[in-house]
Amino acid sequence: MKNYILSVFMVFAFAKAATAQDTPADKLLNEVAQKFKSYDNVSFTYKGNFRNPKTGTDMDVQGDATMAGQKYNVNFLGTTYIFDGKKQYAVNSEDQQVTISKVRTDGNQMITPSNILTFYEKGYTKKWDIIQNEGGRKIQFVKLTPIKSNSEYKSVLLGIDVNTKHINKAIITENSGTVATFTLKSLKTNEPLPKSSFTFDASQYKNWVIQEMN
Question: Per DSSP, which regions of 37-176 are E strands?
């Protein structure tokens, strides 16, 4: 679950449409991309839910994230994920453990912070979906469906605020039956960020287990 959900909610912050703009869905996604490409950084809070009737899963989550370009600092399920542009550092305070890993950039279909700008440029069909009124705001949904049959995702629904061109909600349905829903609570852009926002300082974790994965 952590593997992909840690970043799925980051769809709130960034989206990048495919080059072609032949449909309303392509056009709207491109407008969202252009809006966020104008920001130096974004910080946001979210609430979410994981539900799977088959396994009896029904779990609420909440957290926050800061992103600047490819770099990110994410708090999710008690773990802080830091990506400095080269490596990801997963800081687990409960276990006093830090796991260092390289982020895959081989074009896999897994939705991660490193490919959130481009994950649906290839491998997904896009379809105009329903429009809803949520708290006085018009939210237009765009449905993304993986082209490959071996994808673990059945569909991804992006709910976009028609007026602000910000993504307000993401609903991810897995083939396993798990449905993850994330809703944006707050969003700030171009905030002054500490220089340490996207850096890992090992000296702050003395006596912790620090493990680097190959």
Answer: 42-52, 57-68, 71-76, 79-83, 87-92, 97-102, 124-134, 137-146, 153-161, 167-174
d(CA 166, CA 162) in angstroms, rounded, equals 8
Write down the CATH superfamily of domain 2-212: Lipoprotein localisation LolA/LolB/LppX (2.50.20.10)
Virtual CA dihedral for 35, 40, 44, 50, nearest 10 degrees? 70
The pLDDT > 90 percentage for the chain reads: 39
CB-based contact 108:5 (threshold 8 Å): no
Q: Which of 16-20, 89-93, 125-129, 196-200 is predicted with the least confidence, judged by mean pLDDT? A: 16-20
Terminal-to-terminal C-alpha distance of the chain: 21
Backbone angles phi, psi at 188, to 5 degrees: -125, 145
- Short-list 115, 90, 92, CA closest to 100: 90
Domain ranges for the chain: 2-212
Q: Give the length of the chain.
A: 214
Cα-based torsion angle of the residue sequence 104, 19, 127, 136 in order, rounded to the nearest 10 degrees: 90
Q: What is the pTM of this model?
A: 0.82
DSSP type of residue 48: E
